[in-house]
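Please review this one:
***
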Amino acid sequence: MRRSASVLILMWLGVHVVLGQTSPVLADSDRQAERQALVQSLSGVAPDLMIDDPDVRAAMLHVPRHRFVPDGLQDQAYLDKPVPIGHGQTISQPTVVALMTQLADVDSTQKVLEVGTGSGYQAAILAQLTDQVYTIEIIEPLAKDAVERLANLGYDRIRTREGDGYYGWPEQAPFDRILVTAAAAHIPPPLLEQLKPGGRMIIPVGPRWGAQTLMLVTKDQAGETTTESLLPVRFVPLTSKSLR
């Protein structure tokens, strides 16, 4: 089906488990009504990009988003908007998180790499779908805060790492799924190498603060990759020593 070329999502993102839940995290009843209202309001960004996966919607309902934003901004946690988390980064708007998660099409058998932990929210959503979540954050204070936050919330099966996500996590490769939560000028070759045959990568590609496109990258069983442009977006740039 032809995708809409007019859709624009403004996503100011950081660089950076009940359904198939393998973590001992329990549903947080605090602000549950707000989460439910948010999930009910999620629709999609185009007729062929609807947020209708029941597993993704259940994951969004389960994870307490207000625990992943600064204390003074918790009243904004369940609005469909990005929220600043410090260091020039944000937690992305819920529609974006849900859409990228759905496009990744994660199941419980798969190993997932997230590039750009930020506050840890996207990793927590992914951990609802599989207990094999690996996430990298280059900004040291964010990485440390995310480790502590995820541990306090019981997400002890999420593997975290402080480092340059452009180079992926070669010691744990290959990955069935890779999600990149900041825009790169090009698809990083190390991430392509670490994507398993049959795998999928969701990544925004484009210049810093310029026109960007959310891309779906697939790799067939022979190792050949195909890219598909999904929709125009705007992300904060991927922070990497290789891009300076």
